[in-house]
Amino acid sequence: MGYVVPAHLFGMANNISPRYRIEISVSSDEYTPNNVVNKVVRFFVARSNVRMLARPAAPLWICIRARRRRNQIASRLNIDSVTYTLERIGYANNPAGSVIAYDVLDRDNFEERAIDYSIYRTVFWSSDNNPLTRFERRDLRAYVASGTALSKKNLAIAGQNYPRQHVGMDVINDQASSSLCCA
Predict the structure, then answer these.
(1) Cα gap 117→139, rounded to integer Å
(2) Residue 164's Cα: distance from chain center in Å?
(3) pTM of the model
(4) What are the φ/ψ torsions at residue 139 (nearest 5 degrees)?
(5) Rounded to an integer, what is the distance from CA 128 to the centroid of its chain?
(6) Tally of CA atoms within 13 A in the half-sphere of 33 that contains its CB
């Protein structure tokens, strides 16, 4: 019997591992309560043949016809447009045939501080109606800056609100983010 992917992680089924329990223990000392530490972890596994990532803003299991918030519907429509277009130009995922054209990382169901996009050549960033968080802005800047003359990084954003939301210079909005994403 194979691994059953939890429902909230279904969109990332091709790219996530089962949960692993890691235990680290050290020899006894004077303070024994900290001699053994356990942690349960799950890994994101990059499997794309062409180093391409699609990143939706909301969980992929959200059904548009159900009673959902407008933000969730906008996010789902944006990622559906991205995946539909990728399939029309020949980048379709077929896990049964061991073909993973692009990886999917559902950012609502993964730790946003633990992601390094620099392993990818192309990132399709699907948005919702919310502005970018400071971690997302940092990660997008780092991704674009990780490109070199011989290894260009490609960033495509599916969304309509970033130019309006990231204008001005303050803690929440910064002009550099706007020029990065919307130039």
Answers:
(1) 7
(2) 23
(3) 0.75
(4) -65, -40
(5) 13
(6) 0
